[in-house]
Amino acid sequence: MKQAEESDVERLLGIPFIETNVNFVHLIDYIFFRYVKGSDYFEINEEYEKTIKKSEWFQELIKLMINEKIRDIDYIENIGVAERNGKETLVLLDFGFTSEVYDAYYK
Questions:
Q1: What is the pTM of this model?
Q2: Domain boundaries in the chain?
Q3: Burial 6-24 (b: 16+ CB within 10 A, else e)
């Protein structure tokens, strides 16, 4: 396993890390507010919804974020690249900043 680079996100997920309007960082925020918190902070974004629907990785990430109450994973330092079943995939390296941690120490 290795630390992911921004180019790995685009190569493996098909979207840039941060350089355009539809990017990984904004999509993670969108997922957190729309799916995890159930908030309408972000209006429904058809491009993001298409990206989520066509990506098993994002669908699994949503489940993980909901079940583990993960809050903040949109930094490249939190993402690695690992081989699973003979294919490279992105993996989360550190997701300890949960909603409970936020509520207890940062609210």
A1: 0.80
A2: 2-105
A3: bebbbebbebbbeeeeebb
